Amino acid sequence: MRPSARHCLALIAATLLCMPLGAQTQKGPWPTQKWETSTPEEQGMDSRALAALVDFGAANEMDSLVVTRHGRLVVEAYYAPFKPGMRHRLNSATKGVVGALTGIAIQQGKLAGTDRPVLEFFADRNIAHVDERKKAMTVQHLLDMSSGLDWKEPLTDQRPDSLLEMLRSPNWVQFVLDRPMAQAPGTTFNYSSGNSQLLAAILTRQTGMAVPDFAAQQLFRPLGISGEQWRKDPQGIATGGFGLYLQTRDMAKLGYLYLRGGEWEGTQIVPHSWVDKVYQAKVPMMLSATTDLRYGDQWWTIPARKAYMAVGYHMQIILVLPQTGVVVALTGRKSYPVDQMLDLVDGAVKSDKAVAPNPDGAALLAQRANEVASEKPLAAAAPALAQAISGKTYRLAPNNLGLREFTLHLGASPSYEIVSFVARGSSDTKRVSMPLGLNGQFAPADATDGAVFVSKASWTDPGTLSVLVRQPEEAETVRYVLKFTGNKVAVTHVNAFGYEQKLTGEASD
After folding, report:
1. Which of 168, 154, 194 has its CA nearest to residue 313?
2. CB 293 within 8 A of CB 302
3. How many Å separate Cα 389 from the centre of its chain?
4. CA proximity to 392, closest of 309, 509, 250
5. Backbone dihedral region of 315: left (phi > 0), alpha (psi from -120 to 50 degrees) or beta?
6. CB 399 within 8 A of CB 501
7. Helix H or strand E encompassing 274
């Protein structure tokens, strides 16, 4: 009996509902050369709601925000002093890229699936604590953070002891391989940048290329991404867990690649089935009693929100929302509840089609993006002390920061100089000179070894100067609070993690 049209439509609908999200067809332009821009309303989004997202970023120390829908850029914000064109440290969002590269290596036959035992890739090494559990550890266990290795790197504010030990070790890969087993592989989720470092080492061996070169050839250049940077371990292996630097627009391209099921301009860059694995991640992360977070192939998922993310410390995020065709790229310097951000993004989506233009909302969005991109100058009179200390060199008592002395120049062109020891235990020193903004705006310094620095200062009382130094691309912030009393100075050093150290010094003349 020939089926009716109604029955056919019902069958098609049922089939689509059973397909994984990654298999649904996504349409839109390819932003290889550049992102096409659009008003939010043309893409069914609300400008006022996106202005609220920009404000959320300002309140939560974001450095940049890019939102795209249907392959078009609908809002872009850069929070001063971070600027368009700057790269940003992705921290652990790097893991999502390493996951994609693993899928590419499998597609090209350079890695025979994910079931191969990890130790087989390192048969030329002497490895400690080898037992049946360690022998059973596979590439998939590394990808899913279920290797079973004894590792302490909690996704909280607690110290990541194992990560710090790896960073201090002379051979990172050997350090990870030598870790004892805490449980059988596949037993439970345990976050570990060591797992990702092993993945980077395996990719290096199997592809015959350094990971950054493999990524450039097989992933970045086909997407039109260039200018990336990637840190390396002492043996020259790319840092698989946190070492990548990208522009925010390029982060969004990676999210768009996953939105399109791994396809780019008719070429399957990442296997379609590999992307679907991320969309169907099953490893419970057990981080929250209220939110079901899952992990798979170095990506995070929130099944209830249909949200898929590569996530780095202090909210470096590549967010993919396949149901609405939205991709968001975020960088910043502070952790915040991801649900609040998702609520704002979801709340901005009003329709699958264009909605009526909203000139007032568009003007508000443009205004808010312009405001966060610049700092307002402040007219503040300097205390009499400023002239008295300007040009004086203050020698500091021995300290574990390696700082030896500093000099402030508080005249017409404010600046400062810091002399520090080159390394712990060394008597060699280096001198760094930087301009100092005293008008409420960061003053940029010439790039030093490729690093971008900006700094500004303000008088918090007649005897106390607060100096803020930032590396925008590194998301690093250091504050020096200088309290002057006679010819002495008390210095409070506060790093990006909020740790304080007290130093003392005295004018040398």
Report:
1. 154
2. yes
3. 40
4. 509
5. left
6. yes
7. helix 272-279
Question: How far is CA 259 from each of CA 24, 94, 201, 297, 368, rounded to the nearest angstrom?
Answer: 9, 18, 28, 16, 28
CA angle in degrees (0–180, nearest 5) for 199-203-205: 120
CA gap 369, 58 in Å, rounded? 10
Question: Strand, coil or helix: what is 254?
Answer: helix
Q: Which of 336, 338, 335, 340 is nearest to 497 (CA)?
A: 335
Contact between residue 391 and residue 507 where contact means Cβ atoms under 8 Å apart: no
The single-letter code of the amino acid at 277 is: K
**20-86+247-372 in CATH: which number?**
3.40.710.10
- E strands present in 286-366: 294-296, 299-302, 307-312, 316-321, 326-332
* Cα dihedral 101/315/254/229 (nearest 10): -70
What DSSP character marks residue 191? -
Q: Please list the residue range(s) of the chain that carry CATH number 2.40.128.20.
A: 384-507
| CA dist., res. 313 & res. 243, Å (int) | 12
For 209-253, the pLDDT digits (tens) are: 999 999 999 999 999 999 999 999 999 999 999 999 999 999 999
Indicate the DSSP class of residue 241: T
- Distance (Å, whole) CA 324 – CA 394: 58
What does the angle CA 309 – CA 311 – CA 316 come to, to the nearest 5 degrees?
Answer: 115
What distance in Å separates the CA atoms of residue 202 and residue 198, rounded to the nearest whole number?
6
3-state secondary structure 347-390: HHECCCCCCCCCHHHHHHHHHHHHHHCCCCCCCCCCCHHHHHHC
Residue 266 makes CB contacts below 8 A (sequence gap 6+) with none
Structure tokens at 62: 């974001």
339-377 per-position pLDDT tens digit:
999 999 999 999 999 999 999 999 999 999 999 999 988
Q: What is the Cα–Cα distance from 320 to 341, expressed in whole angstroms? A: 13
The amino acid occupying position 1 is M
| Domain topology for 94-230 | Beta-lactamase (3.40.710)
Which positions ≥6 away from 187 have C-beta within 8 Å? 146, 148
Average pLDDT of the segment spanning 96-105: 98
CATH 3.40.710.10 intervals, the chain = 20-86+247-372, 94-230
Residue with tokens 């402030």: 408
Residue 47 near residue 286 (C-beta atoms within 8 A): no
Q: Which residue is it, tokens 């652990």?
A: 92
Helix (H, G, I), strand (E, B) or coil at 82: coil
**Exposed/middle/buried for residue 147 (C-beta within 10 Å: 0-12, 13-18, 19+):** buried
User: Is it true that domain 384-507 has CATH number 2.40.128.20?
Assistant: yes
Task: Determine how many CB atoms are found less than 10 A away from the CB of residue 291.
Answer: 14
